[in-house]
What does this fold into?
Amino acid sequence: MTRAASVSSDLARTPEATRADAPPASRPRTAPLRLTVLGATGSIGTSTLDLCGRHPDRFEVVALTAQCNAKRLAELAITHRARLAVIGDPAHYAELQELLAGTGIRAAAGEDAVVEAALEPADCVMAAIVGAAGLKPTFAAARQGCRVALANKECLVSAGDIFLGEIKTWGAELLPVDSEHSAAFQAIGRTSAQSIEKIILTASGGPFRTFDKSRLARVTPEEALQHPNWSMGSKVTIDSATLMNKGLELIEAFHLFPVGAHQLDAVIHPQSIVHCLVMLEDGSVMAQMSHPDMRTPIALALSWPERIATPVPKLDLVALKSLTFEAPDRDRFPALGVAIDALNRGGAAPAVLNAANEIAVKAFLDKKIGFLEIALTVAACLEKAEARGLLRDLATLDDVLAVDREARAMAQNVLPG
Ligand code: NAD
Ligand code: MG
It folds into this structure.
């Protein structure tokens, strides 16, 4: 995989570039942060708005978007006094308009309107749409040169170099929201790239960590949606159960931090207390710990370089007793290896991986394929894409979206049954 060294080293300097004596925002610190939330009704979106509600003086909500749930979107828009509410699916526009009538909140609908919401002047856009559907709106947020709090990992997985290029071109600022990457960002601090030997992302191991293959073959979507530690949207919960999530996160980390693919690793840590470990040349290992609640990394992405209070319980180290770590089992959880292969192949491979995985996860949730067939489908799709010469380097967002479409069609054909 290619990566523009200048871009990655710029990002590696982000902690220093945003330190307290050099605030990135042009607005004075005392003014509320004008915040847009893309994917406001989701797990990350509602956690973000929960924090806004707890710090009403610090945040001013500009725009909120959602795909289908007009009722929840309208409630959130009214509660947080948003100026604009956008529903992605136009079929729910009339309902949204009715719910917002007389409130003074503008309503809009459709894919283009979601992109326009990302372009409404704001100091920070929380990019929390799930899947490749988040690419266009998140790219739009980068174009307005504000802070992009990035939960949508697909932007970096499918379009890493291109997205980072946009962030740089438009003078935007990228803050990771994914807990492991937020942890790495904090653990790296001002450490220079040469001193970093390894970045190790932790994974809970999901609900099936101890299952053998025959039991894995029979697990249901209902069982897979019961994550032991984290409360998340359904797509990322299934990805956590297959370990594809960790694979996607290794690709995300590759783009965010100044290390090669061989310096990235994943370890199973069932307690989900340590989120990432950064090994340094002097023998130090820097780690970040917190209760598994996304409001901690979200708060950091919104308030950096300051900190704000959250309701997340403080760690009781004595009660925790022990923190354990084990190697991931790539035989029982092959999705991790499939994702690492895609990272090493580079070019369009991660975009194909992501698209095929989205199709396979949906097929599993719809009970059309079994749990073990998710990784098999994605691997078969990558092989097919390679044979068809589809894994070329990508230069623009349109290239990424074209590959994404092609890979989805291919995955539909590859699906067993
Ligand atoms: P979710 O499914 O709970 O919410 C997704 C949001 O996106 C909803 O508001 C939904 O209306 C909107 N959306 C869905 N499809 C859309 C479309 N086609 N167009 C526009 N909007 C659409 O998802 P989530 O768990 O909040 O995850 C959001 C992103 O954050 C994902 O990329 C995920 O990988 C990442 N992430 C989530 C967590 C977590 O704890 N939930 C942790 C780390 C990273
Ligand atoms: Mg994560």
About this structure: The pocket of nicotinamide-adenine-dinucleotide (ligand 1) is lined by residues 39-45, 66-67, 88, 114, 128-130, 133, 151-154, 178, 230, 232-233, 235-236, 294 (CB under 6 Å). The domain at 33-181 is CATH 3.40.50.720 (Rossmann fold). The chain has 19 helices and eleven strands.
